[in-house]
TrEMBL record:
Pfam families: WS_DGAT_C, WS_DGAT_cat. Belongs to the long-chain O-acyltransferase family. GO terms for cellular component: plasma membrane. Residues 12-282 form the O-acyltransferase WSD1-like N-terminal domain. Its EC number is 2.3.1.20. Pathway: Glycerolipid metabolism; triacylglycerol biosynthesis; Lipid metabolism. SUPFAM superfamilies: CoA-dependent acyltransferases (SSF52777). InterPro entries: Acyl_transf_WS/DGAT (IPR014292), CAT-like_dom_sf (IPR023213), O-acyltransferase_WSD1-like (IPR045034), O-acyltransferase_WSD1_C (IPR009721), O-acyltransferase_WSD1_N (IPR004255). Residues 325-466 form the O-acyltransferase WSD1 C-terminal domain. This is diacylglycerol O-acyltransferase.
Length: 503
């Protein structure tokens, strides 16, 4: 897990190279994390902590170098920790809106390619919505170092389960217990068998990809008659483009972020059990409902509309996630934003998740990323754009520790993070559970999502609709979407949705 070898240069993996090449002014390939604290952080203690734990990963002393024949890691001979750890202060009232604006600016700004591609920003003044003051740590780390799950765990390895650091070793045992309800666990097991095969076929995959991109008829043929991996790749290629909405279109360079007040995790678990689905199904259905309301407010006709989100799927055991590098695939998840009935929307999300569970789609995506790392740059751009047109958003859902954490002796109150969007995708949805609460956040392209707060503010309302359904129905009998429609029409639903609700 930790490496102290001082070799100055080593080849970058093909998948990590693909993520490095994906960097665009319109979509920075950074994973952005925000940790909000119950009190003030000491910048000197933070730097000492990073020197001890973060830099124990040799990779973070290395910079990414791109050459004509690929990319490699090179030790930064001029490494300066002070350059990578910046001290900042929010202007004005230093409130949530100010912090969201600060994080938005950072998410829009590139990292310096002449140095290791990461920075931490210590915000010394922050006033939370409940009026309590504290500090914030904003982390920016390039995706070429590792995938989102690995980097979230690396960030949390900086924390302890008690104010004193002696408890640091306990975190792995308390956090990495098996969580059979997580999307990562549910999608992981049926795919591991094909992972090595996908990687082994990587060099052939990009040639097949070029062939199928050049002739859609060949892709359609492979979709019916190819080998398992080629068939899944062909199916992904032949998916129709996602419908055009206000969320899709030409991107700018500015990003905007926002996050909602957290939900109690126990309530989400109980609701999922009552409605016969998983925690992740509930949360993603709430996200779909929030997007539905947002687009309707933009004047769009959303009835009957389904959009897709790409969902990163871990392809290694969770206890190995702190090993750096990218080891994940992607699946396409349908978000039925055109469905006005919240329970029917949940049923459709759950059905899609069950279907994805038995597929090899995530392994194919991993092999595709490896292939893109091997492919000529002239092919990578068109391939990335082709797959970007198939989805509107990137949605991530990471189960975090369910006990309070401390960094440099100060309690972490809230957590939020976003993975980057690729190609022409301009919306990211992030769900993270921590210390008994669920945190939901949005990152959007400034041209496509001018007010992400208008999305996150709807998330809680969508959850409350599902709670109302569960509370108002007769539990002695089975109930479904028609019953929910009647309940919501009477008690809670917006008139425009109530008129269009169907069984």
């Amino acid at each position: 897990m930790r490496d102290t070898d001082s070799t100055p240069r080593e080849p970058m993996s093909k998948v990590d190279t693909a993520w490095l090449r994906m960097e665009r002014p319109t979509n920075r390939m950074m994973i952005t994390g925000v940790l909000m604290f119950a009190g003030p952080l000491d910048p000197a203690r933070i730097k000492a902590l990073l020197a001890e734990r973060f830099l124990a990963f040799r990779r973070f002393r290395q910079k990414a170098v791109v050459g004509a024949n690929g990319a490699w890691w090179e030790t930064d001979a001029d490494f300066d920790l002070d350059w990578h750890v910046r001290i900042a202060a929010l202007p004005g009232p230093a409130d949530k809106a100010g912090l969201e604006a600060f994080v938005s600016d950072l998410a829009s700004s590139p990292l310096d390619l002449s140095k290791p591609l990461w920075q931490f920003h210590v915000v010394e003044n922050y006033t939370a919505p409940d009026g309590r003051s504290g500090s914030v740590l904003v982390a920016r780390i390039h995706h070429c170092y590792a995938d989102g799950l690995a980097l979230v765990q690396v960030l949390l390895s900086l924390t302890d389960t008690a104010p004193q650091p002696q408890a640091h070793a306990e975190l792995a045992k308390t956090w990495l217990k098996r969580d059979r309800g997580s999307v990562l666990e549910r999608l992981l097991e049926p795919m591991q068998g094909g992972l090595h095969k996908a990687v082994a076929l990587g060099e052939k995959t990009w040639a097949r990809l070029a062939q199928m991109m050049a002739d859609p008829a060949i892709a359609a043929e492979f979709a019916h008659e190819g080998s398992e991996i080629t068939r899944e790749l062909a199916i992904a290629l032949t998916l129709p483009d996602d419908p055009i909405t206000a969320l899709k279109g030409r991107l700018g360079v500015a990003k905007r972020v926002a996050w909602a007040e957290p939900l109690p995790l126990d309530e989400v678990k109980v609701l999922g059990k009552v409605l016969g689905c998983t925690v992740n199904d509930v949360l993603l259905a709430c996200a779909a409902g929030a997007l539905r309301g947002y687009l309707r407010d933009q004047g769009e006709d959303v009835d009957g509309l389904t959009i897709r989100a790409t969902v990163p799927v871990n392809l290694r055991p969770l206890e190995h996630a702190k090993k750096l590098g990218n080891h994940f695939g992607l699946v396409f998840l349908d978000l039925p934003i055109g469905e006005p009935n919240p329970l029917r929307r949940l049923e459709r999300v759950a059905a899609c998740m069950r279907d994805l569970k038995g597929r090899r789609q995530a392994v194919v995506a991993f092999g595709l990323l490896a292939a893109l790392g091997m492919a000529p740059a002239a092919l990578q751009g068109p391939a990335l754009e082709l797959f970007s047109r198939k989805a509107t958003a990137v949605a991530t859902n990471v189960p975090g520790p369910q006990q309070p954490l401390f960094m440099a002796g100060v309690e972490v109150r809230e957590l939020m993070f976003w993975v980057p969007q690729t190609g022409s995708i301009g919306l990211g949805l992030s769900i993270l559970s921590y210390n008994g609460r669920v945190h939901f956040g949005v990152i959007g392209d400034g041209k496509r999502v001018k007010d992400p707060d208008a999305i996150v503010q709807r998330f809680d309302a969508e959850f409350e609709k599902l709670v109302l359904i569960a509370l108002m129905e007769d539990w002695s009998e089975d109930f479904g979407a028609p019953d929910a429609a009647a309940t919501l029409a009477k008690f809670a639903m917006d008139p425009a949705d109530s008129a269009g609700t169907h069984a």
